[in-house]
Amino acid sequence: MGCAMWAHGPWQGRFLPQPLAAGERLRAYASWCDAVEGNTTFYATPPPQTVEAWARQTGPDFRLLVKLPKPITHGRRLAGGDEELRPFLAAMEPLGPRVHALWIQLPGSFGPGDLGALAGFLRRLPAGHRYAVEVRHPAFFTDPRAARALEGVLAGADAEWVPFDTTVLFRGPPDTDAEREAWTRKPRLPRRSPALTDRPIVRYLGRDDTARTVEGWQCWVDTITGWLREGRSPTVFVHTPDNADALPLARRFHDEVRARLPRLAPLPDPLPAEPLTLF
């Protein structure tokens, strides 16, 4: 269970300690959630000491969904990319089992005609990692033939299809500045919920209004509960346009699933947002 980032200004002093050194932010976040999206690696491969710091701040059961660099997925569109891929994989090695999956997020222009490039790329990847693919071309969501073709490519590599559910965001007009910005940047696609592997991944984007976010995720509570009963190990990332309350919302989602499946382990106890005192 996690969020889109582990450091966010509005969390400081509300949910996470303030002040908080940069080298302690992931540790504090990991007291709230046990997974996080690694979006920063999309923009640059971090130096080894940065990745080593991430590993030091988290336990071996913490999980990162690590996004492949933009030059590979958007620049080269999976054609080649070995020059960027090798140092990236080497940089991630200190995380060890914390790498839940390597996340291949593809541009909206990457359509059914590009599946050959995806299949070839997946074949070239080392077998030591799990892989998760996010597509944004409308044909994969509206054309059953395109969807089946993509599923076939992913099944051949035991890779997961990552849905990014934005349907709640676009269900009604935006009410906040963050929602208005999200309307211009986020993909508007149908919801997709089938799992291809035993470790499905869901990215859910709600609204800045908590009630609407919670109402919108009820279908996912049903789906996640079903997957757990089937013996799968799903991971869910909760977003809102401003992400101001994403931390407690992620825990609330987990609590709703746990209310149906009490055997599900609880999340860790969060660190206090304020320093403890003697009085």
What does the secondary structure layout of this molecule look like, with pairings?
Blueprint: E1 2-3, H1 25-29, E2 35-38, H2 48-56, E3 63-67, H3 70-75, H4 82-92, E4 99-105, H5 115-124, E5 131-134, H6 139-142, H7 144-156, E6 160-161, E7 164-165, H8 177-185, E8 201-205, H9 210-216, H10 218-229, E9 235-239, H11 246-260
Helix pairs in contact: 5-7, 10-11
Structure characteristics:
single chain; 279 residues; alpha/beta; TIM Barrel; 3-stranded parallel beta sheet; 11 helices; 9 strands; globular
How would you explain this protein's 3D organization?
With 279 residues, the protein is α/β, with parallel strands linked by helices. It has one domain (2-260): Protein of unknown function UPF0759 (TIM Barrel). Helix content is 36%, strand content 13%. The chain is built from eleven helices and nine strands. Helix 8 (177-185) links the parallel strand 7 and strand 8. The longest helix has 15 residues, at 246-260. InterPro entries: DUF72, UPF0759_sf. Pfam families: DUF72. This is DUF72 domain-containing protein.
